[in-house]
Amino acid sequence: MYISVSLSTAPFDKLGRIVEELDRSEADAIHIDISDGSLFPILIFAPKVVKDLRPYTKKPIDVHLGTVNPTWLIDEVAEAGADACSIQWDNCEYPRYTLDHVCRLGMRGGVVITPKSDIPDMSYARDRFDYVIVQTVEPIPSYQFLPFMAEKIRTHKFLERNKGITWFIDGDVTFANLDVVVHSGVDALVIGSLITGAPNIPDRVREIKEKIAEIQRTM
Description:
The chain has helices spanning 15-23, 47-53, 71-80, 95-104, 148-156, 178-183, 193-196, 201-217, and strands spanning 2-6, 29-36, 43-44, 61-66, 84-88, 108-113, 131-135, 166-170, 188-191. The protein is α/β, with parallel strands linked by helices. It has a single domain (2-217), classed as Aldolase class I (TIM Barrel), CATH 3.20.20.70. The protein is globular.
């Protein structure tokens, strides 16, 4: 299964080393959240972080813009070296226009769905994105895995209008809930502290992938 590793909970003074370790691991991508505090009570990262970390890895970098008005940041994110960029569907006034901007700059477009939201019919913008990130947590301090989000994926993934979309789960993925996550039918995971907090990052990524494969063999 595809794994993009989130840097949000990683110690900022060790980001370069962590990304170098991820580059040597079986992780598939690096996930960077950019939040201005307007949607979530968290201020984290900026396009400059993408630019500064880009030389440390050849792996794809996917950026999540957790902002009310993401359009003004898209050019900076592309110039910084991001390979993909996702937006909050519910909080973007013109999703198709914004995703078109992402695509015109050569990045893959993505959509993020929060726990409070139903997964909408996104058909009118379907040709402008190819992945959906379903968040399975709300922000700190209530940061905990919400298992009913896995059911949302099971319900919507196989609808005709959603064919071809890569589905991610993002939020508090642990060994304790990995079985629920995999059985949701999800295609990819965003995982943070379970990996970045490990004493040996390549070993931890390998361990997670082996556990996922074990679960999939029993499905």
